Amino acid sequence: MTAVATAAPPRLDGPRRFARQFFRMPTAIAGLTILVLFAVLALTAPLYIHASDLDVTKATGGQMAAPGHGYLLGTDQPGRSVLLLLIWGTRESLAIGLLATLLAMVVGSAVGLLAGHYQRFVGRALMHVTDWFIALPSLPLAISLAAVLGQGATSLTIAIAVTSWTSTARLVRAQTLAVEARPFIERARALGAGNVQIMVRHVLPNVAPLILVSSTLTVAGAILSEATLTFLGLGNPTDVSWGTMINQALTTSAVSRGAWWYYLPPGIAIVIVVLGFTMTGRAVEHILNPRMANR
Amino acid sequence: MTDALAAELAADPGAAASAPRWYRSSFWPYLAAKLLGAAISFLVMLVIGFTIFNVMPSDPVATLTRQHPTSPSQMAALRKQLGVDLPVWHRFVNFVGHTLTGNLGDSWQYHQSVGSLITERLWPTVLLIGSATVISVVLGLWLGIRSGWRHGSFFDRASSGVSLVLWSVPTFWLGLILLVIFTTGVGPIPTNLFPAGLMSTPGYSGPWIAHVGDTIHHLILPCLTLVLVIFAQYVTIMRSSIIDELGAPYLLTARAKGLRDDDVRRKHAVPNALLPSVTVIFLQLGTVLAGTITVETVYSWPGLGFLTFQALQIPDLPLLEGTFVVLSGAVIVMNLLADMLYRVLDPRVRAQ
Amino acid sequence: MTFASVTAPDDSTLIVKTKTPQANMPYVSVAPNTTPIVPQHIWESKVKDLKNFRNTDFPVVGYGPWKLVGYKPDQYTTLEVNKDYFEGRAKADRLILEYFKDDDATIAALRSGQISAAWNLPATGYKTLQGLKDLMPYQQIATRWTGVEINPGAKSRTGKPLGTGNPILADPKLRLAMAYAIDRETLVKKVLNGLGTPGVGYVPPAYKQWAWTPASADAITFDLAKANSILDAAGYPKQGAYRVDPKTHKQLAFRLGTHSDDANDQQIAPYLVGWFKSIGIKLTLQPQSMSGLNDNLAKGDWDLLMDGWSTPADPTYLLSIQTCATLPKDDGSGGNTDAFFCDPQYDKLFAEQTQAFDVKQRAAIISQMQDILYKANCDIMFYNNNILWAVRTDKVANFRTGEPDADGSYPIQNLFISWKNATPVGGNSSSNAGLWIGIGIGIVVIVAAGGFFALRRRSTAAERE
């Protein structure tokens, strides 16, 4: 039953079996394709986008002009190409999402492993700490960090990371408990394995797949959070990210002006990338979790 | 939004496993321990909140008096009145003491007590979140049950797909687009279908029932925005719970007894599958609150989320601290309720 | 205003004697800075302690063609006509002010007919209201300016240096070069969509009596080549992309503070970064909350800050914030300065104009003051943004008053004076208390007793929203 959700923890299939199963699922292929596409866009952008394309003082297009005349997605208020901004924005949006998730993963996994392994005092204390962070609303923290560190990508990344690690921690802890109940751990202990060794060499590999799945979810949430925090005014106007694009579209009345080419694409891009991460995560989870094999 | 993850988050089996036996099986000690934990969490929140807000520049006097020629002695008097000239530890003690006695200070920009502001704005937010949650839960559960029962079918794939896409949409973006579509009218949709914001039409006179109707008219768009973004969570959890139930032996027995498919689903599978969903409703409050801030801002809906956004402006420290306390307090209470509810509803947890 | 004595010899005369001659006393009766007069026999029986009377309970003490009858913070304000108003009863029985947090929502409400008029519309959204049936958008001439202030060396009254401002900025040639590197026309075109005028003088153009333009030899235009040559001549060599200070070999890198909640600041800032890069100066953006920015300003911890002020017809306060008297004390407190500007000649002229009762004479003195400020380049003007209104002609007539000037801008409407003649068109069936006008205000709040307008365009959220 779901109450004892992971009684039989998922074993990581051999990589080839995994890949075969993965590529048999249409949602998995779709998700991965999206991620690869956006990764390529982000990495190759500097090859054809120059600083002058992003500089408002060098913008030569019409002001908030509709698509046409060499501007596939029209222009923004200063006259820059929305398409180029969108592609360049991939870099910062993905960077913030991935970095924040990496931080959250590291912290969350560490806390979860420790809490699951040292069940008594340390474990309970860590879970209490986790509860406090669950209750912490992300917005005030983001405001405060912005005031101290300056508004921009750094404070946003840290604020998002600090409020995202808790779900991973709880998941990892539940999984650690389940893994440690298995006989091979007892065997390892009997053979004299120390705490760290057990955690790192025995538990971690079994927990890793779940961490991977959880991280795809966290990236999705991080990208959405970046957009929201920027909308609320906590970003840096000279940065180019999807969140700042939406923010600037809104403050230059793009919605009232019907400039759909300016305010729709960044939102749609967010939706697509978030979907990409979510679909990939679900696919991986499908494969790893035998209970779901018949879905 | 993955199935197993959602299920994991709803039920934390490890919590019970680490506690001593006698404690697990009796109710009152369990409740007492949980209450104590919640109280400690709340105090820790106060400390964290105070720290967060007091690293920011917190002298509002220059900002507040910018429009009025003010003499230095007047500024000093204002500083004293606002309590910003006290040393940090003194302010912390005041903050904790006052909060615990219910005095949250006075807002710097509204010139009224934070407590009264929060009380004023509480009902609109409760109305918005309440209606959105009820609709999302009903919609999500219905869709989840239907898709889970016949998983793999077109209906299942379509509903999962749609709910997933909607979950991925930034809330404020969706809200603004809906606002413009339904107020100025796009294509076949007529103009002025819904009001462009606020909670009621000012100067609206008429019978009591008309006021209720007016409020509902204003509520529709903000509620719709929230529902669209959050219902996916309930679809997912219910669907995965139902699917888990599908292979259970007792269902086989029920079918062998001759019960119709619908009855098997309604009377046996659903009640058991409901369990994790119930706790998820409480646990998701934090996410819903975050979404409410942006929805209320877009629609000028005068609730706590809007108040929090307003508090950002100077920043209005007492108001920020007050809304922080209320919001994180609400999440702590909801988590506590979720824990208790889960324990009450699931006999197996009690018997462990 | 320093009053020496106030006497009322008869029922309709009030004599105020000031301690020193004050040329701006007549402005006391000009809205919005009106000082209303309430006779003692009226307030005596109702208010026990006048000093501590806050006037926040209904019925409030007020003055004007409408009475405040209802107020829901952040939502709406309801006013009902004052039948005994001395200038005659206003045409509209009720006035409702609705507050919208979001500009797009305001515009949507206008277009759908939910509100009859709106004010302080965003420049970028204004154009969507042109050419629509029944909608009349128009501009009011600017009573404000937006610009950037440069820290010329923050110091206290006694000359003690304050704060972490970059000392290189004390070089007037550097500031002059910066002034040449700003394309005001582009800012008006791109940020204001053309709905404003390039900034020149310190006093906004709304008040023709204080109008001033620099001598043609002194006029600063957008000229990157000239800016570069000024910096070359001043001895700031280029090293890589940016220039360096020859003495310290440090890059010319400065902090530009912006108001994080101000959409125009956010739009202008990237332009500055780009233009200054072309002349070899590096600008790092620091968006801050309002109190954060004001905090840093007062302490002198800034290099460049976005700045903006608006003024009523009497520019005394606006001029005063550039005097040496507003510098803070040695501990950094007690100051009210705008940019730490301090010039004895300016102070002398300021004292002179406070006593110049003849408007032409006062204008001449103020012109000299504007000239000094223009040449100092501590407050560099970007533009004067017009105030943007839109009215639904199918809901209300006679709302707009005055004649447009050559640019099509209407004179300032000091609130209730102009609304007094606004006439509702047609009826509203949902109301049973006569006709009413709903007016939506995008960003501004009116304080109860008679309307009090902030000078600083961006002072507090209460004023903005």
Helix content of chain A: over 70%
- Low-confidence stretches of chain A are 1-9
Q: Biggest sheet of chain B: strands, sense, closure?
A: none
Number of strands of chain A: 0
Number of helices of chain A: 11
Q: What is the structural class of chain A?
A: mainly alpha
**Rg estimate of chain A, integer Å:** 22 Å
What's the total helix number of chain B? 17
Name some characteristics of this structure.
heterotrimer; A: 295 residues; mainly alpha; 71% helix; B: 352 residues; MetI-like fold; 75% helix; globular
Written account of the structure:
The complex is a heterotrimer of chains A (295), B (352) and C (465). Helices cover 71% and strands 0% of the residues of chain A. Chain A is built from eleven helices and no strands. Chain A has helices at 15-22, 26-48, 51-54, 82-117, 121-135, 138-149, 153-180, 183-190, 195-231, 242-251, 260-288. In chain B, helix 4 packs antiparallel against helix 7, helix 4 (27-54) runs antiparallel to helix 16 (317-345) and helix 12 runs antiparallel to helix 13. The two termini of chain B are 29 Å apart. In chain C, helix 4 (172-180) runs antiparallel to helix 6 (224-233) and helix 10 (344-354) runs antiparallel to helix 11. Chain C starts with a strand and ends with a helix. Chain C is globular. Chain C has helices at residues 40-43, 103-112, 123-126, 172-180, 184-190, 224-233, 263-278, 290-299, 316-320, 344-354, 359-376, 416-419, 461-464, and strands spanning 3-10, 13-18, 66-72, 76-81, 94-99, 117-119, 135-140, 144-150, 196-198, 238-239, 242-243, 253-259, 282-288, 304-310, 379-385, 387-392, 396-397, 409-410, 423-424, 436-441. In chain C, 48% of the residues are buried.
